[in-house]
Amino acid sequence: MKGLIKGLGVTWKAMTSKKVTYKYPDVPLQMPDRFRGIQHFDPDKCIVCNLCAKICPTDCITLTGKPNPDPEKKGKVIDTYDINFEICILCDLCTEVCPTEAIVMTNNFELATYSRDDLFKDMEWLNDNNELIRQENNSAMPKGGAKKNV
What we know:
Shape: elongated
Number of helices: 4
Low-confidence stretches: 137-150
Order of helices and strands: HEHEEHEEH
């Protein structure tokens, strides 16, 4: 009998306390500023240097380019850029190594799907993924990247 009353006391206390659940699908979650979500890719900035594909620890990035059709301009033009989010660990290395900042992380994290084939994202999808792009406060960051000790 003592255990029953003790258990009901715990239940009553939990029923009257503040609720900690979220109304997630209806109200989007606010993610922290440094949250690493899905990448946004801007093909106009890409110089096809392949640094993102080389540094990727899971080899989930496929980047191909072709020579520039304009003979006056040097370099390559991007042909395809694909990411396999089935194996991507969102490590942020591809964004750190990109010299032109063609790849940036967003606060978008919703990739739920019923098929694994839908986790292969192409250049057009990544370019349209421009919601919630992470904005860095560059004025507070020195050139080396570490915060200033004041």
